[in-house]
Amino acid sequence: MKQTRVEQFKEILSKRILVLDGAMGTSLFSMKLTEEDYGGSKYEGCPEHLNFSKPLAIEEVHRSYLEVGADIIETNTFGGASVVLAEYNLQDQAYEINVAAAKIARRVADEFSTKEKPRFVAGSIGPTTKSISVTENITFDELSSSYYQQVNALLDGGVDIL
Fold first, then answer.
1. Can you give 4-16 as a three-state secondary structure string?
2. How far apart are CA 133 and CA 70, in angstroms?
3. What digits encode the pLDDT tens for the residues 138-158?
């Protein structure tokens, strides 16, 4: 019976250390992307929108890590929770943004995968810009709902781990 990617991941992890990619945001920043690359001034500074407006830049970052031997690449979704995307009025597109990011990473990981060295995709989930306890600008239910949506989208897009 064929192993799932998760089973394969667990087996390999039990035998050796797996190398995770580096910072997506820093890599994108070093590309000196323009306002136009982001899809206009209202999205400038929102790396998650690049999954729509400049997917080739995201692919380039993924490839750069895989080319030097990374086993795992992370999706471009650190700020992909709807409560963060709301800062760019993208909260209603959170599901689509996360699915797109996962599919981009999955496609590139599969391109580099071999039987001897499979590559994996981790769904990146950041801490958001909200706080239940410090600034009390979000409720637990709102935050958990936002994360729930993001996790489902990442899984639907094909990530192996979160």
1. CHHHHHHHHHCCC
2. 37
3. 999 999 999 999 999 999 999
Quick one: tokens of 114? 């071999």
Q: Ramachandran region of residue 131, left (φ > 0), alpha (ψ -120 to 50) or beta?
A: beta
Residue 136 CA to its chain's centroid (Å): 27
Residue type, 95: Y
Q: Token match 């080319």: residue?
A: 67
Q: Which of 102, 99, 94 minimizes the C-alpha distance to 73?
A: 102
Q: Which two tokens stand for residue 129?
A: 């810009």
> DSSP secondary-structure letter at 161?
B
Please check whether residue 48 is in contact with residue 90, taking contact to mean a CB–CB distance below 8 angstroms. yes
Measured CA to CA, the distance from residue 152 to residue 162 in angstroms comes to: 11
Tell me which amino acid residue 40 is: G
Which runs of consecutive H residues, i.e. helices, occur in 77-139? 82-85, 94-112
For the segment 36-69, what is each residue's pLDDT rounded down to a tens digit? 999 999 999 999 999 999 999 999 999 999 999 9
Distance from C-alpha of 52 to C-alpha of 38, rounded to nearest angstrom: 9
